[in-house]
Amino acid sequence: MAAEAATPTNAPAPPAKRRRSLGLGTRIFLVIALVVALAIGAAVVFSFVVAERIARDTAGADLASTGQIQDTFRDQRYDQLLLSSYLFVQGDAYLSAYIAEAVSTNDTASILDLLSERQVDLGYDFAIVLDPQGRVLARTDRPGVVGEDLSARPLVDRVLTDYEAFGVWREGDDLYYSVAIPIARGAQLIGFLVSGFALSDDTAAEVKRVSRSEVAYVATGEGSPQVVASSLDGQVEGELVAALTAAGDPLGDMAAGSAGEHEVSLGGERWLVRVTPLVDAGREPVGAAVALAPLAPQLEPFRRIGRVLAITGLVALALALLLAFTLARRTLKPVRQLVAATAAARGGDYDRQIPVERGDEVGELADSFNALLSDLREKRDMETYIADLSRTMPEPVAPAEPVAPLAASGGEATFLVVDLRVGVAAAAGNPQVAFDRFSAELSRLAQLAVARRGKLAGLAGHRVWVRFEGDGRTYRAFACAGEMVRTYVEAGRTAAAPVVAIASGEAAWGAAAFGEERRGTTLGRTAQRLETLMREASAGDIAISSEAEAELRSTLAEAGVSIAEQRGMVSTQPLFVIDAATAAKLIGDQALPTLASTGPRTATRVGGGDTPVTFSSIGPGAVVGGRFEILSVIGAGGMGVVYKARDRELGDVVAVKMLRPDLAGDVTHVTRLRDELRLARRITHPNVLRTFDLGEVGGIPFISMEYVRGVTLAQLLDHTDRLAYSAGISVGKQLCQGLAAAHEVGVLHRDIKPANLILMPNGNLKLMDFGIARPIQRTEPGQTVEGWLVGTPKYLAPEQLRGEEPDARADIYACGVVLYEMFTGTAPFEGESYVELATKTLREDVPPPKQRWAEMPPELEAIIMKCLAKDPKERYASAEALLGDLSRLKA
Questions:
Q1: SS3 category, 143
Q2: What number of CA atoms fall less than 13 Å from residue 156's CA on the CB side?
Q3: Number of H helices and number of E strands within the chain?
Q4: Most Cβ neighbours (<10 Å): which of 113, 149, 412, 489?
Q5: What is the mean pLDDT of the chain?
Q6: Domains delineated in the chain
């Protein structure tokens, strides 16, 4: 039992002890020696093989040249024959008449005399005159043959159809380069003239004189092949046909085209021959032109080189062994250093540095290993740095509950119900147009309500419910209603204005379950009263309950407005109605107290301190867009609230950012935001926080993004003067990598700052908020909506402060400010106001970073100052260029 406990049966076997092997230096020496010996031996063998091939290639080149010369010679013969034939036929104006008369009288003797007479002048070896049907009238080589039908001969057959032909003519054992042309008198065809030059020994000798290769002409097709002419001596010429037959019978293969090159044995020597078909006018072979070159003269120089190479190789082998021993010892020195550094790195020691003294592969390996150690040091320092800071940073405060939690609530409140009739006419014909119009008007109402501290309480068809609480709630509700109808009155479209009802009193509100979602609604008599008021009012009217009228009476009286009590058609309860024109005048003349139109332009801040601002009743448990289940509130900023949520479709945890309602009402801003996100979704870099989708709930856009846990660079800098050097280099390189990926797809960040850089526990950086911080459209001349963002002033480039269109170099400037702040603990410029900060950025020189951190390396200072150049042309042209310089800095 004890033994089994001490040595379990399933325990892994101990690693086998490795046998002692030869050292790396000895192996290098032996390998080099073996390689050199093999190389020298192979060189000797190879030289003979190559010599053989070179000899064949040289002979082949000579034969190819001979073939070209033969082709040129043949073409010259054909041209000469054509010229002489046409001179014969057309050179004498009376010749055609003479021939025509001789043909008509069958005067063969006269034609022969004429052919013989011109043969001396034109130099052809034979000539034939044919009638128009291809029958012989006269021929010089066989004077007694008359009337023979040659129409089946390829040359004659071709000239009968093409009126001009050329090709090799075989007559018995003779071969001729021949041509055929018509003989005509005016438009009348009299006959044809066939003439040719014989392929003779003189022809072969002439080709040899030019090409320096032996030449032979062989006739084929009628019986066994016969040599009809050559430049060879008698013995070799007699062996040629038999040698060709023994070498694969290239003469028999000519039907398929050129038979190519072959090696044959002639006269006891090796010859390389090239066989070229001689074809007739029908392109059929009737013989062959054979070019021959001996191989022995070509091989002899290479054999001498091989013998010299063998002797030289033995001497080189001895020298190579000595060189191999020296090289192995020298090469091992940096390798031994690499082995030691690798072993140390495995143990966690990344602080070794291998000297790079060479420019070869070993030196490059040492340089790459040094870079790897530098990256490992950066990663180690970053992880240690974040771990140390995490112990001193305060614990995150749990976010407060939203303004209006999902749990039911109630009390005194004023409710505004607006029946938005815009889009009613287009609903049947074009649903998309109807919803676009309705969404735009709903966004405007949301903006007006939030600006007066109202909350969207529900949406049912065309009707929107808005709830107002606290002091002056009825005044604010009436001001919101007046702003809604005033636009229609000023545009002369009162008939299209919405129907509005206002009621004040006790009510209950909350969220009711509706399928998987929870939707806000209002219950109680006040809600019923509002439904009654909506049925009594007309387009543009503001119907007011008696309770709400009592709260407004003194204010309206001060403005000179008196409302008579009415009885409704549907209900006998009293109600009060203000028409659209009166309401518009009250709002336009600013006759109501200031309480009616003032108040925060964002939702109420919950609690105190740094608790986030929320804009709706969305809270934990809510489902946004039918897909994202809200888990908690992460934080809030100038653009909206960020929630942690679960994606029900994919099961992932994501971040959902709801935009501020006043920004949601800006159509231009939402459109530009959607265009930016369409590009931002294409960024898939590890150093960029992924943006997934853009949706909308209750007229308010939201963005779904990748969710990560970590701390922002701004939080780190709040708890330390500056980052450690290696940690700062790591942050800077990762920032440039993420920014380069964004610029590659055409996305400019425009708001690079420490708050938008989040660091994960493992030291990896994510760049956040692409395409969010952008200018939004001004709502009125001279007035700017709260939330106007062009970036954070401290990180804006001078050209942005001047109102110029930014490009990638503006992001480079912001990177420079971040680097400056990371390594010195302060920004390049500080100011009590935006104007003071902008003035310094535009006019003052950047203080050298070394003044604020004396130990800053000069290379890093030069990089930062180049990023902060006031002229964009003097900065880095791209994030890749900045990354390249940062990568050269070692931790």
A1: coil
A2: 21
A3: 24, 27
A4: 489
A5: 78
A6: 53-297 (3.30.450.20), 409-596 (3.30.70.1230), 607-707 (3.30.200.20)
- Please state, in angstroms and rounded to a whole number, the distance separating the CA atoms of residues 797 and 803: 10
449, 497, 478, 467: which is closest to 556 by C-alpha? 478
User: Of 216, 211, 270, which is closest to residue 240 (Cα–Cα)?
Assistant: 216
Which pTM was predicted? 0.44
477 close to 468: Cβ distance less than 8 angstroms: yes
> What is the pLDDT at residue 605?
30
Element (H, E) at 24: helix 24-90
What are the tens digits of pLDDT across the range 282-306?
888 888 889 888 887 777 777 777 7
The single-letter code of the amino acid at 447 is Q
User: Which one, of 689, 693, 522, 523, lies nearest residue 624 by Cα?
Assistant: 693
pLDDT at 636: 62
Q: What helix, strand, coil percent values describe the chain, rounded to 5?
A: 45, 20, 35
* Number of alpha carbons in the 13 Å side-chain half-sphere of residue 529: 22
Tokens in use for 505? 């009193």
Structure tokens at 668: 């231009």
- According to DSSP, residue 396 is labeled P
Q: Give the type of residue at 22.
A: L
Q: Would you call 617 exposed, middle or buried from its count of C-beta atoms within 10 A (0-12, 13-18, 19+)?
A: buried
Rounded distance between C-alpha atoms, residue 500 and residue 520, angstroms = 20
Phi and psi, residue 632, nearest 5°: -165, 170
- Ranges of residues in the chain whose predicted pLDDT is under 50: 1-13, 15-16, 396-406, 593-617, 772-789
Give the pLDDT confidence of 40-61 residue by residue, as tens digits: 777 777 777 777 788 778 877 8
Is residue 216 within 8 Å of 231, Cβ to Cβ? yes
Distance, in Å, from the CA atom of 210 to the CA atom of 679, rounded to the nearest integer, reads 73
8 A C-beta contact, residue 482 and residue 561: no
| Burial class for 361, CB neighbours closer than 10 Å (0-12, 13-18, 19+) | exposed
Distance, in Å, from the CA atom of 778 to the CA atom of 666, rounded to the nearest integer, reads 9
